[in-house]
Specification:
The structure holds two protein chains of two kinds.
Chain A: E1 22-27, H1 34-45, H2 49-62, E2 64-70, H3 72-84, E3 88-93
Antiparallel strand pairs in A: 1-2, 1-3
Chain B: E1 5-9, H1 12-30, H2 38-43, H3 52-81, H4 83-86, E2 92-96, H5 97-118, H6 131-155
Antiparallel strand pairs in B: 1-2
Helix pairs in contact in B: 1-3, 3-5, 5-6
Classes of the chains: A alpha+beta, B mainly alpha.
């Protein structure tokens, strides 16, 4: 991997703090049905069926999966929606 | 995608059984909050398990809305089931697409409450003598059927 050939050097004062993305993590639980979880991922986030199923299986097999990434406030809105659907969701800073 | 309704078959006895469960669920949600109630905790889990301050702020900002949504969802389901109290021949429920997520949230939340009461969230062992397991499994069957019907409607 390499960056652009030429990166303009900006005045430190003008450089915004790096935008650290946040993650919405959904955790496995022994109650929620697999078909239900896949449906929520598909209908709420608008993921294609394959993506929704892959994420559901990742939650099931690995114990958790990062289901969305973005600004913290957005991840909190998603977490509230997931809690509404009964899914066990948490928010964390990416890379934690 | 936005129109249409699901025709969900229900035996009359199932409809009345679900009425009783939904009534219990609404009573639980309406009761004064007992923060020590594990089932209610599971319905509003910690969004920041490693950051108590952020968790508390998130909780303050979302919990009331979450409970209000659950009560509103459950009342919608309850209204749709009313026909089973008056019509002995009722054998299905029409679920408009706009109410579908409310149905899904309600059935899944009631399963979570039962699971918490039964300790299934810790250990998936079934005690065949406890009738609540039958209810838990039946709710799972009803939810699975609803998901299948809804997925099918999306494909049409």
């Amino acid at each position: 991997m390499s960056g652009p050939a030429s990166v303009p050097v900006m005045d430190e004062q003008l450089t915004a703090a790096p935008l650290v993305p946040w993650e919405l993590v959904v955790w496995d639980d022994p109650v929620n049905l697999m078909s239900y979880v896949a449906r929520i991922f598909r209908t709420y986030f608008g993921y294609p069926q394959e993506t929704a199923t892959r994420l559901m299986l990742a939650v099931h097999n690995d114990g958790h999966a990062v289901v969305a990434t973005g600004p913290r406030e957005t991840m909190e809105v998603h977490a509230q929606a997931m809690h509404g659907f009964g899914l066990w969701a948490t928010v964390r800073e990416a890379g934690e | 995608m936005t129109g249409g309704a699901l025709s969900v078959p229900f035996a009359s006895i199932e409809g009345r059984h679900l009425i009783a469960l939904v009534d219990d669920f609404i009573a639980l949600l309406d009761a004064p909050r007992d923060t020590a109630d594990e089932a209610l905790e599971r319905l509003a889990p910690d969004a920041y398990p490693d950051d108590p301050a952020a968790a508390e702020e998130y909780r303050r900002g979302t919990r009331d809305d979450l409970v209000d949504q659950r009560i509103s969802d459950a009342r919608t389901v309850r209204s749709a089931l009313e026909r089973f109290e008056t019509d002995a021949g009722a054998d299905l429920v029409e679920v408009p697409r706009a109410e579908l997520d409310g149905w899904l949230r309600t059935l899944s939340a009631m399963r979570l409450v039962l699971a918490s009461r039964l300790g299934i969230d810790r250990d998936d062992g079934h005690d065949p003598d406890d009738p609540r397991y039958g209810t838990y499994d039946w709710l799972g069957y009803r939810l699975e059927l609803l998901v299948q019907l809804a997925d099918r409607l999306d494909e049409e």
